[in-house]
Amino acid sequence: MAPELARLGHIALETPDLADSMEFFHDAVGMEEVERTADTVYLRAMDEFAHHSLSLTERDSAGVAHIGWQTAEPEHVEQYAERLTDMGVDVRWVAEDEERGQGDAIRFEVPHGHTFELYFEMEKPDPPAERRSRLRNRTYSPTTTNPVAPRQIDHVQIWDPNARDCAEWLQEHLDFEMHERYNLEDGSRWGTFLSASGTKIEAAVIQNESGQAPPAVHHTAYTVDGGADLFEAGDAMKEHKVPIDGFGQHSISRGKFLYARDTTTGHRIEFNDGGYLVFDPDWDPIEWEETDLDDRQWLGGLTPGNAVHY
Amino acid sequence: MAPELARLGHIALETPDLADSMEFFHDAVGMEEVERTADTVYLRAMDEFAHHSLSLTERDSAGVAHIGWQTAEPEHVEQYAERLTDMGVDVRWVAEDEERGQGDAIRFEVPHGHTFELYFEMEKPDPPAERRSRLRNRTYSPTTTNPVAPRQIDHVQIWDPNARDCAEWLQEHLDFEMHERYNLEDGSRWGTFLSASGTKIEAAVIQNESGQAPPAVHHTAYTVDGGADLFEAGDAMKEHKVPIDGFGQHSISRGKFLYARDTTTGHRIEFNDGGYLVFDPDWDPIEWEETDLDDRQWLGGLTPGNAVHY
Amino acid sequence: MAPELARLGHIALETPDLADSMEFFHDAVGMEEVERTADTVYLRAMDEFAHHSLSLTERDSAGVAHIGWQTAEPEHVEQYAERLTDMGVDVRWVAEDEERGQGDAIRFEVPHGHTFELYFEMEKPDPPAERRSRLRNRTYSPTTTNPVAPRQIDHVQIWDPNARDCAEWLQEHLDFEMHERYNLEDGSRWGTFLSASGTKIEAAVIQNESGQAPPAVHHTAYTVDGGADLFEAGDAMKEHKVPIDGFGQHSISRGKFLYARDTTTGHRIEFNDGGYLVFDPDWDPIEWEETDLDDRQWLGGLTPGNAVHY
Amino acid sequence: MAPELARLGHIALETPDLADSMEFFHDAVGMEEVERTADTVYLRAMDEFAHHSLSLTERDSAGVAHIGWQTAEPEHVEQYAERLTDMGVDVRWVAEDEERGQGDAIRFEVPHGHTFELYFEMEKPDPPAERRSRLRNRTYSPTTTNPVAPRQIDHVQIWDPNARDCAEWLQEHLDFEMHERYNLEDGSRWGTFLSASGTKIEAAVIQNESGQAPPAVHHTAYTVDGGADLFEAGDAMKEHKVPIDGFGQHSISRGKFLYARDTTTGHRIEFNDGGYLVFDPDWDPIEWEETDLDDRQWLGGLTPGNAVHY
């Protein structure tokens, strides 16, 4: 069996001020702190069964360390390492627990400069008794947390100076599937919407409009429980004086969204609801032309802004 | 590569009065009629990309014809046919389009009498211009349909006189994965919650409490867009004088639910919201004991009632 | 007892093309047609107990005929007529049923040119049997109508060349209460938010930024059942190619909103959810300064556009 | 002008164990503690502008001290005192601040033993800076509180051994209006649904089925922001091991509900959403007969249980 990725697992972010960024990710957004080391805090969303889906590490400046993908089987990490090394990609092994909770992993750059991590093993959270849910299919009880707290990691949006090539490389070498794509009037590809799990959009690969700009991450999306929760999320962001960079519904994916930004770093969280699930094995990619609709947003809109570099 | 099932695709139901049952499935529940033959109506839910997810065929009495599963690859239908024939299972081939919109398929009984169908090919819906959505990732526009209309098929609940054996057979021979299981105080298994897609519960296999009863289907579940929609669904069912057999939230799967019943046949639809997605390849099945909670329902409750036989 | 207004009752709008405007108000927005005369259609929202809350009359051009307010007691119509006549206001009596379903009424202009109507008697809707709800506290069953159909009329927003004087006149002579007011940095009043019922905002009186512009109506607001329904409403508007002029949450009133516009006339409907109810008899008006927040909208935003003149 | 009541203001409850009851009202239900005296805690809901809407006083046993109604004008307290005294009702004056935050008030028994309090003056909450909302029309910021926290007090349900007489006395002497009433098959009145504010149901007066039982309160209802929040409320109650006594939608009032109970005292909170507002001055009371529907609940159901005596 050829190696496969199972799902988007986590994102590792960097901040020049961990305490300030925790005011955003923990106090405002409502993520749960799972564990803390000398320079890193590990966070999870409410309905996740893995140790963490986001980490914050203190560094000189804001940045993205890597995007982590869980393989379908344990041996796929090694198999991908071989495949990538054979292709001339520089693969670095990350020892078990170098990233807390995680087994042996590999890190490498994909075109044109995004750092990906592949791993299979990840600890399950073990909540203290007073935080444990009465339900066996829920880990922590969410009842004392922020009402708008994210439920599960959903996707990342990455910006690339040559996004179509990046997306095609991911399809060819890491076995991502294309679920939607969007072409501009000049025929060039603006965005490709990929999935590792085969069931939803997990990586949106977007053309960085300034061709010289380095590869970057625009946002990490987490699900919430319904459209009404996006208003609640907006309310919480505003009360915490967190800037909101967009609110509405995307045409692509049909996801409802609210973007909130950590002013310390520029990292964005998307609160996301809805869209559709693709379990169909005979899925035909959705092909959008720029002229199909007046606006890429079906409802509401976005405020332009930069993505954060690696 | 070993054959795999991709997802629950559709259920084929029988009714002694097609017009009466359409009052339930179409007028009250809100499903869309896609196509009609001499004795059968094919229906789909609002956010589905396949020809149909439910069919109603006029027969002498109410019954379940089969439960349809889509394979991961076209050649898996043949591969399963071989595997099952080798095991002594009586496999019948169903020619392309015998079931409208569908390619070659196989039908067979799984223990202890449930009729399953496996297929890969299924037409995509081609809506008339006036019903077509402006969004390329949506087929029909839902704006003129029932507000509580189902979104996507989610799972079936089947009752079996020896449910644990049935579930284990499905895991062993059709490669279902177990996501949750529930044991009674006497140590016996009451329910096993399986998935073909690997990402959610698609078949709940429940012990028929009267051991002599034949295999049956209790309900077919469809997703809606949020908890508030379950109240809307209840409202619509009541205005249509449709009996409601349960309303609340399950402990298992954490799905919120409302059960509605076609009085002509006893077939039930579950309007379902929430629960969780299992993309994790290292999922540990959730193991419930009867004593874990006072009630199998986390919230609200069910009215006891029969399932419909094949 | 001094006369009092009980509530905002209805708005009478004019259109050069009744059929086109019905595509907006009926087909897209989802209002129910109650009755039709030679030149007028009377419409109601889903949870209203009065004959109509909006009428559309065919005239040479788009316009607002009047805004109707129901008095607290039958004799208050006459009492207001006397008061206004004594003040030199030109009061015209409207005979019973000149406006369908309505008893004797008066019409007059308030500064600076808005036509108000006061009435007490209004028929109750009498739905045909097949449209009657099973619930005695609901008139028509909503189950076959648009899911985003308005529930109850909520407020009107009027634009005035001297809005503060207009608002103060309404407070002094028609006994409106002020619930909120918003001042610009130069100390001038931008908006006054009044209630006739004393329990919610029913008339927003806004400074027309071009001082020479005639009095006008920017929108008529109807409630929906929750924040998620605003996304549904947006979806329905988009599928019907109806322009959306705003989506988000107001700071003033805290109402969540979506504005949709009839392209034939420029008349706007606001789908509105939330905000707060003021039952407190000792309410202190909320006083906003322009510098209190970065934006008058707490979340999302508005597209500038004209209001429709009388 | 005759005196009038403006609205249901608060309920004063008694508990043998204040700390235990605060685990219910504060920790689980999510009400905010405003102030605390030697034996009493004052609580408010999230969207209220008055000092408190519920108080808990430590006493030997669970009980209801009184139900507080705010008058429409300051002088109405005195006017009601005179009217009631003239009728032979024993009226006791309560000095300003005897109940924290409140001006001069009167207390008295209405048939057949319910203690009512009338007052006009009530302090507005003055939140500490770190809890203050950025919105001037909101007092405390809710962002750090329980997501299911009540929004505003809505109604009380009282049980009476002769409920019809009780209701008629309230209509005649305290100027309550009847919005709905429900008759049993034997022609007797089961429930009368009254409003002081004239715009919603604020007091449900229910026939105590055991005729000899003393007057009691079954529950105090608070609004939440939508139907989905009732599922959230249920989730929070279950995680806190709080018993739930009902979940669904009432036919009368069309309110969606979830009942939760303080096991220490038996006091119940209803989380309530929806229903309708009656601004119509010409409202015809809704008249239900027992045979109109199969069940008093439109959806879901109730668990029988006792009310708490005065």
TrEMBL record, chains A, B, C, D:
<comment type="similarity">
    <text>Belongs to the extradiol ring-cleavage dioxygenase family.</text>
</comment>
<dbReference type="InterPro" id="IPR054560">
    <property type="entry name" value="XylE-like_N"/>
</dbReference>
<dbReference type="Pfam" id="PF00903">
    <property type="entry name" value="Glyoxalase"/>
</dbReference>
<keyword id="KW-0479">Metal-binding</keyword>
<keyword id="KW-0456">Lyase</keyword>
<dbReference type="InterPro" id="IPR037523">
    <property type="entry name" value="VOC_core"/>
</dbReference>
<feature type="domain" description="VOC">
    <location>
        <begin position="7"/>
        <end position="121"/>
    </location>
</feature>
<keyword id="KW-0677">Repeat</keyword>
<dbReference type="GO" id="GO:0051213">
    <property type="term" value="F:dioxygenase activity"/>
</dbReference>
<keyword id="KW-0058">Aromatic hydrocarbons catabolism</keyword>
<dbReference type="InterPro" id="IPR029068">
    <property type="entry name" value="Glyas_Bleomycin-R_OHBP_Dase"/>
</dbReference>
<dbReference type="Pfam" id="PF22247">
    <property type="entry name" value="Diox-like_N"/>
</dbReference>
<comment type="subunit">
    <text>Homotetramer.</text>
</comment>
<protein>
    <submittedName>
        <fullName>Lactoylglutathione lyase</fullName>
    </submittedName>
</protein>
<dbReference type="GO" id="GO:0016829">
    <property type="term" value="F:lyase activity"/>
</dbReference>
<keyword id="KW-0560">Oxidoreductase</keyword>
<dbReference type="InterPro" id="IPR051332">
    <property type="entry name" value="Fosfomycin_Res_Enzymes"/>
</dbReference>
<keyword id="KW-0223">Dioxygenase</keyword>
<feature type="domain" description="VOC">
    <location>
        <begin position="152"/>
        <end position="274"/>
    </location>
</feature>
<dbReference type="GO" id="GO:0046872">
    <property type="term" value="F:metal ion binding"/>
</dbReference>
<dbReference type="InterPro" id="IPR004360">
    <property type="entry name" value="Glyas_Fos-R_dOase_dom"/>
</dbReference>
